[in-house]
Amino acid sequence: MWVLGLPDDITVALFDLDGVLTDTASVHRIAWTAAFDDFLTERAGGDIGGRTDELRPFTDQDYFDYVDGRPRMDGVRTFLASRGLTVDEATASAVADGKNTAFLASLERDGVTAYPGSVRYLHAARDAGLHIAVVTSSRNGEQVLEAAGLSEFVERRVDGNTIVAEQLAGKPAPDSYLRGAELMGVAPAAAAVFEDAISGVEAGVAGRFGYVVGIDRVGGGQSDAMTTAGASIVVTDLDELLAGD
C-alpha cells in the first residue's frame, strides 16, 4: 500500500523550495533575466539592436536549461559558458549579486505565496508521520520559508549557505540531497526527492533516492524532460499525489 503517493518504505521527504512549495521560481526567473540582460546589453556596448548571437537576450529556456535549480554562481557560469562567454570572477559575482538584489526587492515588495496544493500535501505528510526537510540551492531559503509560513513543517534545511559553507557540489550533483538525507538520519533509498528543475531531478536520480517526484509548473516539454531525466512520476501539483490515498 502506498501512502501520500509514495512507496511505503519512504520515511523522509526532501523538498526543493522555489517552484515546489512556493511560487518563487517565477520571481527567480524574472530576477535572472534582469541581471543577465543588463550584463549582455553592457557587453554589447548598449547597442540592443546590434547584439551578436552570443549576446542575444536571456530567455526563459536559458533559465530552465542553465540556471534553474543550480547554486547562484554555478548558474552564472553555466549560462555564460553556453554562450561561449568568459568573464573574471568579479564580473560573475556582480551578475550574481545583481540577481539577488532584484530577487530580494521583489520578495520585500510582493511577499511569497505557497502553492495551496503543496500546503495540503505538507499537512497530509506531517499527519501521516512523514519527516520533512527542504533542500534548496537558494541562499534565501530561510527568509522564503518564513515569509510563506512554512517553517513549522520543516525539520531540517539544506540551502545555498550550507552548500557554500560545507563545499558541497550543487545540483545536478546529488550532494545537497545526500546531505539532507544524512541530516534526517536515513539512507537515500528511504527518502523521496521533490523537484521542479531538471537539474534537481538529475540530482535525485544520481543520489539513488527511493523516489523522485517531478513537479511540472511550466508545461511544454518539461514533463517529458523530467521523465527522460529519470523522475519516478511527474505531476503538475503535489496534491495530485493524495488522490489515491
UniProtKB/TrEMBL annotation:
| Single annotated GO MF | metal ion binding
Q: Which keywords does this chain's UniProt record carry?
A: Carbohydrate metabolism, Hydrolase, Isomerase, Magnesium, Metal-binding, Phosphoprotein
Q: Which residues cross the membrane?
A: none
- Sequence similarity: Belongs to the HAD-like hydrolase superfamily. CbbY/CbbZ/Gph/YieH family.
Name of the molecule in the record: Beta-phosphoglucomutase
Is Phosphoprotein among the key words of this record?
yes
Which Pfam families does the UniProt entry name for this protein?
Answer: Hydrolase
User: Source organism's superkingdom?
Assistant: Bacteria
The UniProt entry, under NCBIfam families, shows: HAD-SF-IA-v3 (TIGR01509), PGMB-YQAB-SF (TIGR02009)
Broad enzyme group: isomerase
**InterPro entries in the record, alphabetically?**
B-phosphoglucomutase_hydrolase (IPR010976), Beta-PGM-like (IPR051600), HAD-like_sf (IPR036412), HAD-SF_hydro_IA (IPR006439), HAD_sf (IPR023214), PGP-like_dom2 (IPR023198)
Q: What organism does the UniProt record list as the source?
A: Gordonia neofelifaecis NRRL B-59395
Under Enzyme Commission nomenclature, its number is: 5.4.2.6
What are its cofactors?
A: Mg(2+)
Question: Catalyses which reaction?
Answer: beta-D-glucose 1-phosphate = beta-D-glucose 6-phosphate
